[in-house]
Amino acid sequence: MSNLGGISVIFDLDGTLVDSEPNYYEAGRRTLAEHGVTDFGWADHERYVGISTQETVADWKERYGLRASVEELFTAKNRRYLELARASTRAYPEMREFVELLAAEGVPMAVASGSSPEAIEAVLAGTGLNTRLRTVVSADEVAHGKPAPDVFLEAARRLGSDPGDCVVLEDAAPGAAAAHAAGMRCIAIPYVPAQADAPEFSTAGLLLPGGQKEFTARTAYEWLVRSAGLS
């Protein structure tokens, strides 16, 4: 019998399970440079953490006055990102350990991400996490990306789980807001620690302000056991 009762766990992908943000940044920097924006820095990238690629490039078009269509920008950024993702994406070691702990107890798990299905597949396959995480939902498959709850509700549906029995792991404020809107508990691991005091994170059941440096598989597991009302 699992210590976790009927809990299901839904993982965000980028910045939560894997350190993919450097690849997203580089893909964005190269794409924008091709369109004449040559001063896009890491601080500029941080404002898009947790937002879907579609929404990111739509904002670029308006912010930088780009002539390319949103579709062209989306395709170019995705192509560059996939090249980088397939070459090298690192899974956070404690997250990998957490996935293994949950798998050993037969806990239903899913990935719900703002990335494209192709990007999610490339990253999960490249890190080997696809052997444990087979239920995957992309924001491309639902009506609205985060902070709307759609991806998390669809993940719960595919797992056959009630939203109230789901716990989400998230690194970004829009994702924490989406989990709250879905009626799910949230373990928040801010990718940008300076954003840990964002109001969206205040709804998390467990907030680790130090981000991945503070996250351990054991801490998260013990919190889940307590949240299941068992010890």
Which residue ranges are poorly predicted, with pLDDT under 50 across at least 5 consecutive positions? none
Class of secondary structure makeup: alpha/beta
Q: Specify the helix fraction band.
A: 40-55%
Helix/strand order, N-terminal first: EHHHHHEHEHEHEEH
Number of strands: 6
Radius of gyration: 17 Å
Strand proportion, as a percent range, falls in 5-15%
Number of helices: 9
Strand line-up across the major sheet:
3-2-1-4-5-6
The general outline is globular
Q: Between the first and last Cα atoms, what is the distance in angstroms?
A: 13 Å
Would you tell me the overall average pLDDT? Answer: 94
Model description:
Helices cover 44% and strands 10% of the residues. It has 9 helices and 6 strands, in the order E-H-H-H-H-H-E-H-E-H-E-H-E-E-H. The chain has a 6-stranded parallel beta sheet, with helices on both faces. The mean pLDDT is 94. This is Hydrolase.
Name the descriptors.
single chain; 231 residues; HAD-SF_hydro_IA; HAD_sf
Question: How are the SSEs ordered, and which strands pair?
Answer:
Layout: E1 8-11, H1 21-34, H2 42-46, H3 53-64, H4 70-87, H5 93-104, E2 109-113, H6 117-127, E3 135-138, H7 150-159, E4 166-170, H8 173-181, E5 185-188, E6 206-207, H9 217-227
Parallel strand pairs: 1-2, 1-4, 2-3, 4-5, 5-6
Task: Summarize the model shown.
By secondary structure, this protein is α/β, with parallel strands linked by helices. It is 44% helix and 10% strand.
